[in-house]
Amino acid sequence: VDALARAQSWMTLAHPNVVRLHSVFTSDEMTHVQPGGAHTYFVYAYHPKAETLEHAHFVARSVPLDEEAVWAVALQLLQAMHAVHGMGMAVRGLEPSHVLLTDRHTVRLSCTAILDVLRPERHRPLQQLQADDLQALGSLYAAAGLPTPGQQRPPAPSAVGSRVPSPPWCAAQA
């Protein structure tokens, strides 16, 4: 299967927790700026004011995640991953810099399809790639749940089974 056919599979994925891939194309128009032959371009849906989880939680520390917010993020990422795996694909690259915090209540996977198009995995079965996704998701949850430097451990939620609130970055936009 060639690269553009792999991209086509990603373009058919429409899920509220995955940034939509609209197009993938190659061009050699920019070789005068960056030599090396044709370059591949990915066109994704634009989400104004989106911020990566990496920047919001680990760099700027503007979004301290308490346990309830970690669960809200976790559930949305798990839903996104379920949709990707259900289409016979793997995320391959789940990390805080590829998770966008968008609009009032939505977390989205970004940078999908890039590894499938530029570096397809031909030697490992899909089931192993999907297992790697789950391991990456667990690592992301663990990192998001740990306090950042200078921050105390978040307080425990008030009651088990309580309603999952809007993540804390939403309150600033209300």
Please, could you describe this protein's structure?
The chain is α+β, with helices and mostly antiparallel strands. Helix content is 35%, strand content 13%. The protein is built from 5 helices and 5 strands, in the order αβββααββαα. It has helices spanning 3-11, 53-59, 67-86, 114-118, 126-145; strands spanning 21-27, 39-44, 51-52, 99-102, 106-109. The strands form 2 sheets. A 3-stranded antiparallel sheet has the order 3-4-5. It has a two-stranded antiparallel sheet with strand order 1-2. The protein starts with a helix and ends in a 29-residue tail after the last helix.
CA radius of gyration is 18 Å
| Continuous helix count | 5
Biggest sheet strand order reads 3-4-5
Taken from the alpha-carbon principal axes, the silhouette is: globular
Largest sheet: 3 strands, antiparallel
Please provide the count of β strands. 5
Q: Roughly what fraction of the amino acids lie in strands?
A: 5-15%
Separation, N- and C-terminal Cα atoms: 46 Å
Secondary-structure element order, N to C:
HEEEHHEEHH
